[in-house]
Design goal:
Helix content: over 70%
InterPro entries: ExbB/TolQ_transport, MotA_ExbB_proton_chnl
Structural class: mainly alpha
Subcellular location: Cell inner membrane; Membrane
Organism: Candidatus Tenderia electrophaga
Membrane topology: Multi-pass membrane protein
Number of strands: 0
Radius of gyration: 27 Å
Family: Belongs to the exbB/tolQ family.
Distance between the termini: 28 Å
Largest sheet: none
Order of helices and strands: HHHHH
Length: 131
């Protein structure tokens, strides 16, 4: 996309612009790694807790002579709590990640448009905008 925008522009300007946008994008996306990791791994961790709880319930059934609600209810309850905790962690993390990614893309689009506008005005405008 960016290569088509500057067909007649200075290749050095285009390269510097692309390098700057890439550095900025990487810096901003780096902060979202933890959020993405939590959103992706929490369901699996809750699934492990669910399997562990059900396995515990089945072990209790195998070791007892009589089947009762108390024998199964505790471990199954633990399994359901593990599932809920994983979902309570994953759902907000994924929603937050998607919201922040959308905002990041909008921000990078604004930066790219402004960079293109500055480069189209020429070197004098770029020098004026520099800090």
């Amino acid at each position: 996309m960016s290569g088509q925008l500057f067909k007649h522009g200075n290749p050095a300007d285009e390269s510097a612009r692309n390098d700057g946008l890439t550095r900025q994008r990487l810096e901003l996306e780096n902060q979202l790694t933890l959020l993405a990791t939590v959103g992706n791994t929490a369901p699996f961790i809750s699934l492990l807790g669910t399997v562990w709880g059900i396995m515990h319930a089945l072990q209790n059934l195998g070791g007892s002579t009589g089947i009762s609600l108390e024998t199964v209810a505790g471990p199954v309850g633990e399994a359901l709590v593990a599932t809920a905790m994983g979902l309570f962690a994953a759902i907000p993390a994924v929603a937050g990640y998607n919201l922040l990614i959308r905002r990041l893309r909008k921000l990078l689009a604004i930066i790219e448009v402004n960079t293109r506008a500055l480069l189209a005005r020429g070197p004098a405008a770029t020098a004026e905008a520099a800090p």
